Amino acid sequence: QVQLVESGGGLVQAGGSLRLSCAASGRTFSSYSMGWFRQAPGKEREFVAGISRSGGRTYYADSVKGRFTISRDNAKNTVYLQMNNLKPEDTAVYYCARRKGANVVVTTHPHDYEYWGQGTQVTVSS
């Protein structure tokens, strides 16, 4: 019943920007930490950014710090990932995910997340 739907991916040139959105179903969205992960071909899924249930705390992978910003609008059941100064190495399928358990801290491990969206492709050309 819990569904996460990502959107906003696309093809951009290096240095460009994209804003990803993840729309979540359910009435308890605000009770869960959320995360963005990405997976490039042939590579393991990796943590990109996370946000606490209230949006008060955010976490970023070193590779995206200073370039990406995660945010959420609990009234709209939506989490966002603003991606600026994109690099070719950012090319991947991006997934949003809901943390297992209500009112628990953000973690960087995929196995700590229970529900996943279908992913949205981000391609950054040189």
Describe the structure.
It is a single chain. The protein is mainly β and 126 residues long. Helices cover 0% and strands 48% of the residues. The protein is built from no helices and 11 strands. The protein has strands spanning 4-7, 10-13, 18-24, 34-39, 46-51, 58-60, 68-73, 78-83, 92-99, 113-116, 120-125. Strands 2, 4, 5, 6, 9, 10 and 11 form a 7-stranded mixed beta sheet that branches. Strands 1-3-8-7 form a 4-stranded antiparallel beta sheet, with no helix packed on it. It is globular. The termini are far apart. The mean pLDDT is 95.
Helix content: under 10%
Q: Characterize the main sheet.
A: 7 strands, mixed
Structural class: mainly beta
| Spatial extent as radius of gyration | 13 Å
Percent of sequence in beta strands: over 45%
Number of helical elements: 0
What is the first-to-last residue Cα distance?
A: 40 Å
Write the element-wise H/E pattern from the N-terminal end onward: EEEEEEEEEEE
What would the average pLDDT be, to the nearest integer?
Answer: 95
Low-pLDDT regions = none
Large-scale geometry: globular
The tally of beta strands, per DSSP, is 11
Summarize the topology:
Blueprint: E1 4-7, E2 10-13, E3 18-24, E4 34-39, E5 46-51, E6 58-60, E7 68-73, E8 78-83, E9 92-99, E10 113-116, E11 120-125
Parallel strand pairs: 2-11
Antiparallel strand pairs: 1-3, 3-8, 4-5, 4-9, 5-6, 7-8, 9-10, 9-11
